[in-house]
Amino acid sequence: MANDQTPKTQPTEKWTEIELLPEWEEEYYNVYTARKHGKWVMLKTLKPEYASRPEFIAMIEKEFDVRYNLCHPNIVMINDFEDVPGLGRCIITDDVYGSSLRKLIDENKITPEILDKIKHELVGAIDYIQRNHIVHHPIRPETIYFTENIGNLKLIDVGFDQRRHLEPADASEDIYNYGKVLSEVLDHLPEKQPNLRHVAQRCMEDDPKKRYRDVQDLQLAIERRSSNQLYLLLIVFLLIMIGLLAWLNTNKAKRLRQYQPQPETELVETSMSGNPQLHSLI
User: Fold this and answer.
1) N or C: which end of the chain has fewer CB within 10 A?
2) C-alpha–C-alpha distance, residues 141 and 101, integer Å
3) Beta-strand pair 39-46/15-20
4) How far apart are CA 230 and CA 220, in angstroms?
5) Angle at 218 (CA atoms; ends 216, 220), nearest 5 degrees
């Protein structure tokens, strides 16, 4: 009897369209774009000259451990760590193919929308990194990417170690490097931004004590506010609330006095004055 069953379709290869991204190259790593089961991802692996050395193998494993649990919309997320044919052990991340801030600056493609993301999304990513005590390479235009088509800001190369406490010098360095990024972006916009220019200059002060104390102070400065202004607003709000409560209590007391029963003597006098027959009897 002839076998009339349709032949089974051969499964597709797990890894396809692997392509090196020279512009993403790091000191010890090569970066590739690829499809995993048809879905675009990115691969980060040791360069061949480092791939067999134990200290560098430990380094990429440490980076995977540090970054795997990070979760922030403006940080490139790690999905897995596995062997890829022809490349070796790779960190696998979301696909964030697009243009680096460096490329956009060099091509004079900086827009107000990009500045807005630098003001808010990049600062938010830095704050998240610091709150999780992540030690990382300096933040610079080469590590800030804007995804193709949508233009989402994504920070790459965000950590290689995690500590119990982040050193003040590390936090201050982040603020310094943010100032350099912001200053370069402002240089490529036609509109003058005096407040943001002042923010960038303070971030880049040579003396760390003259910089913003932390990311929260930086955020307030970007929004043209200060801690003193917030305290003043809080005091004004409290004074208004106290005045409102005093007014409400005064009105309540007045209403209570209006509805209090009159004394018995007053009621008698009122009744007598309102009855002429009673007056005659008296």
Assistant:
1) N
2) 5
3) unpaired
4) 9
5) 70
Per-residue model confidence as pLDDT tens digits over 1-13: 444 444 443 445 8
The span from the CA of 157 to the CA of 143, in Å, is 7
Which positions ≥6 away from 241 have C-beta within 8 Å?
none
Token pair belonging to 97 = 């193919």
Given 3-state DSSP classes, what are the helix, strand and coil percentages for the chain, each rounded to the nearest 5? 50, 20, 35
Contact 171, 130 (CB under 8 A): yes
CA separation, residue 264 to residues 46, 254, 260 (Å): 99, 21, 12
pLDDT in the model for residue 174:
97
pTM summary value: 0.74
- Contact between 112 and 50 (Cβ < 8 Å): no
Q: Where are the alpha helices (DSSP H) in the chain?
A: 54-67, 101-106, 112-117, 123-131, 168-187, 194-203, 215-222, 227-258, 264-273, 276-281
Under-70 pLDDT residues of the chain? 1-12, 225-234, 236, 253, 256-282
Nearest CA among 59, 145, 139, 60 for reference residue 95? 145
Q: How far is CA 247 from CA 116, 242, 243, 269, in A?
A: 44, 9, 6, 35
Whole-number Å distance between alpha carbons of 14 and 137 = 32
φ/ψ of 39, rounded to 5, equals -100, 135
Segment 121-132, tens digit of pLDDT? 999 999 999 999
Separation of alpha carbons 214 and 136, rounded Å: 17
